[in-house]
Each structure stands twice: as C-alpha cells, then as structure tokens.
Design a protein that fits this description.
14 strands, LPS_export_LptA, glycolipid transfer activity, six-stranded antiparallel beta barrel, periplasm, mainly beta
Length: 232
Amino acid sequence: MAAAGAQAQGAASTPVAPATSPAPAVSGQAPAKKSPGTNGSKAPGKDGAQTPEQEPNTVILSETLHYDDVKKTSVFTGNVIMTRGLMTLHSDELQMREDAQGNQYGTALASPGKMVTVRQERPENFEVIEGVGRRAEYDGTKSTFDLIGQAVVTRFICGKPFDTIRGDRVRYNDKAGTYEAIGGPESSAPAGRVRSVMEPRARTDAAIAECRAQQGKPAAGKAAPGKSAVKP
C-alpha cells in the first residue's frame, strides 16, 4: 500500500521500506524520488500502469513500527492511519511488504468489534468510495482492495449515498472503477448472500451534473466561458 519513500509518523518520522537501511528524515518527510524524464517523470509502462517511481507518496501514522530491511516488511500497530494520494485507510494493524520490483502489498487488520475502513476520493466525478470490513488486503500490481468479513462498499456522489454492495468479500479496482463481490458465512447481507443496490445511470449522471453546477464548474465536455473546448 505504501510507495517507496513512504513515512511512518508516531513518536518519530521514519521512512518505510527504503532501498537501504532506514534513517530519520530531517524534515519529517522523505524527499520524493524523481525518475529520469521530462520534469522528473518517467514514462508509463507498456500496459499504461504507473511504475513504482510514479506512485504517490504514502504517509502512515501509528503508535509503533517494526521494519525488517532484509525481508522488506513493515508492521504498524496502534490507531494506524495511512494516506496515499486521495486514499485513506484506518486500521489497528497494517502489515506491508515490497517485492524486488518495488510493488507494494498490504494487509490491514481490525481489533475485535472494530472494522477496517478505506476511503477513496474521485474528485473528477465528485465521488467518494467508502468501504469497511474486518480485514483489508491490497495488491499494488493490480490496484485492488479486498474488504473481507462483513464487507460493505458504498459509492457517494456529492456526499449522498448511491450504490451499495454487501458480501463476505468485496473487491474494488481503483484503476478500472470496478467491483466484485462474493457471498459467504461472514457476509454483511442476509443468508450469506451478496446484496447490491444500484441507482439508475440517469440518476447518478443527474447528481453529478447538479454537483458540478453547485460548484460553478462547466458540464462535462463543455469549456468554461471564454475558453475553447477544442484544443488546436
């Protein structure tokens, strides 16, 4: 879940999973790494996916941190709050590892009676995706979150709930904007089933248009006054 150069902030700020042994950051935040290319950016991979160097910085707050430089693993415990780009995760424990290519994998756990929560903002559509589960797993190679055990994922538009999916396991693909749900004994829906409530597309489009108008932004495909919608 964390990209290279991520930070853990508790009693002290410590870089997470650096290429070498961790050392305290002077400013409290490790400098972002720049890749070769224009403006310090690196061209996307052949499949269009971001390379590890292009992924957003990750900041993690916790009470404790155990880091293993040999195994490239980190374990955060105690009121864990992870922020990565426009995504925020809350849990009681967060276990992370990194492979040889720099891809990140993580498992978030909640104490008995609590839930792991994940919130992903999508400002281009005025959307917020919120998910809860007893456990959450992240696969950096696929940009997927799995919420497991009493899982619920809700889509909000302009702060209002629209779509809801319940199941034993719900997978959300942030890059593709897709969902998968599986029933089971720990489903949040009755009889261990998957339950989904989806608003009609016309209603969600109208909600997005209304939110856009309230914020004074031009409708999709239209340029702001005085600007051309067609690029030369």
